[in-house]
Amino acid sequence: MRKPVRAQQLDAFDRKILAILQRxxxxxxxxxxxxxxxxxxxxxRRIKRMTEDGVIQANVAVVDPTAVGQSVTIFAEVxxxxxxxxxxxxxxxxFASAPEVQQCYYVTGxxxxxxxxxxxxxxxxxxxxxxxxxxxxxxxxxxxxxxxxRVKVGLSVTTEx
Amino acid sequence: MRKPVRAQQLDAFDRKILAILQRxxxxxxxxxxxxxxxxxxxxxRRIKRMTEDGVIQANVAVVDPTAVGQSVTIFAEVxxxxxxxxxxxxxxxxFASAPEVQQCYYVTGxxxxxxxxxxxxxxxxxxxxxxxxxxxxxxxxxxxxxxxxRVKVGLSVTTEx
DNA sequence: AATGAAATGAGAGCGCG
DNA sequence: CGCGCTCTCATTTCATT
Lengths: 161, 161
Hints:
The structure is a homodimer of 161-residue chains. With 161 residues, chain A is an alpha+beta fold. In chain A, 37% of the residues lie in helices and 29% in strands. In chain A, helix 2 (29-36) packs across helix 3. The radius of gyration of chain A is 20 Å and the shape is elongated. Mean pLDDT of chain A is 92; it is low at 1-5. Chains A and B meet through helix 1, strand 1, strand 2, helix 4 and strand 3 of A and helix 1, strand 1, strand 2, helix 4 and strand 3 of B. Strand 5 (139-152) of chain A pairs antiparallel with strand 3 of chain B. The structure holds a DNA duplex (17 and 17 nucleotides).
């Protein structure tokens, strides 16, 4: 089940606050207030409300993968054989449950899934493919793209027009 | 230029702390200390050191794209014509500068770049392709994958073996 | 109904042993 | 590394429009 996001309209204040928090969520409420022309408690209320509403989904630290020995980033395009609802759900669960899989999207186009995978070395990816792709008889084929450079990385989203 | 990450060895404490901060960076130092069996100031010192060393790259809020009217997530595989260093750098800059482009990777394989793009609607993506792909005479071709479901999303990285 | 000002309490950031 | 302190910041209360 997915989070029930009561997507009500966000006003200009909310959007500005989100823009700041997406860059640095340790910014003090007083500082945010000064930048958006609001008092600290007002900022506090809005952040709380957006968190409850699921607009703010999490507050996380971004860690450099190479610093923790996870130096290989890989994209994998996966094509499945059967696209029945049960089969798709099973594949989603299988992919999402692997800790090496950072991101998993179900897509339209020439592939069915796109995975973003981070592993210490290529041998680990090889092992993962055996487990995740060759070990899954609903996977028809997959294509691998090895990242040579992380040109831009982020989950941030444009909140201002 | 890229950040100079003095990638020294992280011990088991550091890795546990990172694992916690990647889930919720608002966790108090006292709570973290209890979970990893360390005092709060010790936790603070480690976090400060890892931040200075670039292991922790940022602290950000994760915002639900649909809540801010950015409801379409798209993957684009881009193949370029010339792969000279200057041309590649120019492409990197062009892709990274677009705010709709959340993530951009330079990859090996059947494509040269993979982009993760988030826009309010398909028409916005269409406009973006004109600007970014058709307007760039070094782009040979590109393929589009529209995300129907964000099965798993994260920048988190496995810090524990 | 949402805001801003003031008071309270928790947590971060120090130096100390 | 842990213990104490200080001080900033988050959080609540209350009056106001």
